Amino acid sequence: MNEQNEQNEIKAEAPVIPNSETGAPGADEKGKASLPLISICAVAFNHAAYIRQALDHFLAQKGPFRIEILIHDDASTDGTAEIIRMYETQYPGIVKPILQKSNQYSKGIWNLSGAFNFPRVAGTYVALMDCDDYWCAEDKLATQLAYMETHADCQLCVHGAEVRNEKGELINRNLMRPYRGDRDLSAEELIDKAGSFPFGSMMLRSELVRELPDWYVNCPVGDRPLELMAAAKGYCHYIDRAMSVYRFNGAGSWTNSMKTGDYKQKQDRYAQQMKEMYDGFDRSTGGRYRREAASAARRVYFLTRVNLRDFSGIYALNDRRYYRELPGRERALIRLERHFPRLYRWIRSAYFKGKRAWLSLKQRG
């Protein structure tokens, strides 16, 4: 049995921990249901191929704590909602879904957990996940909880992730491993950092999401504003261990949705919306992190120009820092494309032809 099959075989057992005083699962000394310590907030859209794996790994978490799984399905059309209903029936009081009849994202509600899951949070801590990804360590929550329980100033705890394809095959162990070794990130570092943490790695204190600022609600992504909210109140701790899996090019992913339609328009709008978010954060913190927020907004703009292959100002003095942050392979390809465009197009065409031929042979074999 290969590694992926072993992960798929994890049995989903309800995380019922006997109460320390009465010994009765799910009851306190008055016989009332205990509140969860951790609220898992998950979002799904057309994730029928992946949703069982995500839910099974939520339920497989081990530790002396209770969880609730708050899951929002955004009017999936592939049977995702029916699968969620099955889990709700099997794990009543733990799996708590909202199953939309009409798609909310298309109506401009971009942060679905913020709109529909966060208001329902009963736990002291919140763990996040998109349901095309999954956790791959049964002690993920326990590991993060142990740190946050003993470090009151830590507002956000994150970790590394493996990158796998739709078939579960490992693509990269280090792409989503931003640091080598455990470390703390100050507010300034968290605001103005290159790259992003895996969304499914994030655990934060629920008090952060009780009242959401406008610049969170209007942001096109959910992770970045939460990082800023954490930075305003404390620090972030990174655990250098891959405890989740990011599924590259998964169906229904935000990354794939950005590639459809008018790509330039989407990139331009994204850069503008992110700038508005950073401006809102700057106002809400009284300009305390103005330099870091302005730099972070500029980085987003720079990266959207790279995505659009607009290299006109890529070596500008003000942007040189962001250029150096790019992986060496990306910098080499940019130089090749900019200075030798015909050679770049030929190499790119040959690469994709070879890749298609290899995939065809692999499928036949």
List keywords for this structure.
365 residues; alpha/beta; Spore Coat Polysaccharide Biosynthesis Protein SpsA, Chain A; 2 domains; 10-stranded mixed sheet; 14 helices; 10 strands; globular; disordered N terminus
CATH topology of the largest domain: Spore Coat Polysaccharide Biosynthesis Protein SpsA, Chain A
Given helix and strand content, the structural type is: alpha/beta
Order of helices and strands: HEHEHEHEEHEEEHEHHEHHHHHH
| CATH homologous superfamily label of the largest domain | Spore Coat Polysaccharide Biosynthesis Protein SpsA, Chain A
Cα-atom radius of gyration:
22 Å
Number of strands: 10
CATH architectural arrangement of the largest domain: Alpha-Beta Complex
Task: Please report the number of helical segments.
Answer: 14
Oligomeric status: single chain
Stretches with pLDDT under 50, minimum 5 residues: 1-32
Strand coverage percent: 15-25%
Helices and strands, with pairings:
Elements lengths: L2 H6 L29 E7 L6 H9 L7 E7 L6 H11 L4 E5 L12 H6 L7 E6 L3 E2 L4 H10 L4 E11 L5 E7 L6 E3 L1 H5 L11 E3 L8 H4 L5 H9 L3 E13 L6 H5 L4 H22 L5 H18 L12 H6 L2 H12 L1 H24 L1
Parallel strand pairs: 1-2, 1-4, 2-3, 6-10
Antiparallel strand pairs: 4-9, 5-10, 6-7, 6-9, 8-10
Helix pairs in contact: 10-11, 13-14
Describe the overall structure:
The chain has two domains: 3-254, Spore Coat Polysaccharide Biosynthesis Protein SpsA, Chain A (Alpha-Beta Complex); 261-326, no CATH class. With 365 residues, the protein is an alpha/beta fold. Strands 1, 2, 3, 4, 5, 6, 7, 8, 9 and 10 form a ten-stranded mixed β-sheet that branches. It has helices at 3-8, 51-59, 80-90, 112-117, 140-149, 187-191, 214-217, 223-231, 254-258, 263-284, 290-307, 320-325, 328-339, 341-364; strands at 38-44, 67-73, 95-99, 125-130, 134-135, 154-164, 170-176, 183-185, 203-205, 235-247. The longest helix is centred in the C-terminal third of the chain and has 24 residues, at 341-364.
